[in-house]
Every structure is written in C-alpha cells, then in structure tokens.
Write a structure and sequence with these properties.
single chain, Metal Binding Protein, Guanine Nucleotide Exchange Factor, Chain A, three-stranded antiparallel beta sheet, 36% strand
C-alpha cells in the first residue's frame, strides 16, 4: 500500500492518500483543457485509496458540471487542484500536479484525443529551457 502526500498551491489544504495508483490518464477533453488552461489534465485514479485531510479541508470545493460526469475539486483560496471522488463514487481522482511526493506510475494513456487542441502536436521539437528564457 502506497502513501502519497499533497497540497494546494498556497498550502492551505494538505492531505495524505493511502492506496495504490491504478491508472494515469492525460485527458484532452475540452473541459479538462478549460480547467487546466493547458493541453490536457493529468489525473491519477486510485479505486481503493482513502484520503485524509491533514489541514484546510474547509477550503476544498467541488464543482460538478451540470448534466455531465465532469467535476473538479480545488482550494477556494488559490484555486489549486485537489483530489475528489470520481462520478462513480468509488475511485479517487488525483490531479498529478497536486502531489508533493513522487509519482511512481507513468501515464497510462492519452484520452479524448478527438478533442485535442489544434496546437498540441510535435511538441518534442519545440525548444526546452530549464527556466524562463531571457
């Protein structure tokens, strides 16, 4: 059984997840692109995991998109992504970027690629910098 620690951007919310990460999806649907502001969301799925809120649980909010299974949990102070229960009520959905401990699982798949952003291709050819270029 694995233990992962995480927090929001401002640190107001901290949590511990106990359980194994089963899948790691990079979702390209338009809703995930909207909430991430990027090409995709990076979400881990842990069907048998439990979450313990170490601090700031009162700052955690959940947005459920009407008439869909889409949802998002976030800190009401900084907007940082947080874990939540999946629409099925069973699996824990964990935004990979909110974990403070290393993720030991590689992405499983890109999903909803039919919705992929038109600029999201050949990114391995774009120059890379260790920090903001001057």
């Amino acid at each position: 059984m694995t233990l992962h620690k995480g927090s929001c951007l401002c640190g107001a919310v901290a949590f511990t997840i106990k359980g194994d990460l089963q899948a790691f999806f990079l979702c390209h649907c338009s809703r995930c692109r909207k909430v991430s502001g990027s090409a995709h969301a990076a979400n881990l799925f842990a069907p048998d995991a439990t979450i313990t809120w170490e601090s700031g649980e009162k700052n955690a909010r959940i947005y459920s998109h009407p008439e869909t299974r889409f949802g998002r949990s976030f800190c009401c102070e900084c907007g940082g992504a947080l874990p939540r229960k999946a629409a099925d009520g069973k699996s824990l959905v964990i935004p990979a970027g909110c974990l403070d401990t290393p993720v030991e699982i590689n992405p499983t798949a890109h999903i909803f690629t039919a919705s992929r952003a038109n600029w999201d291709h050949d990114l391995e050819t774009v120059p890379m910098y260790d920090e903001l270029p001057k």
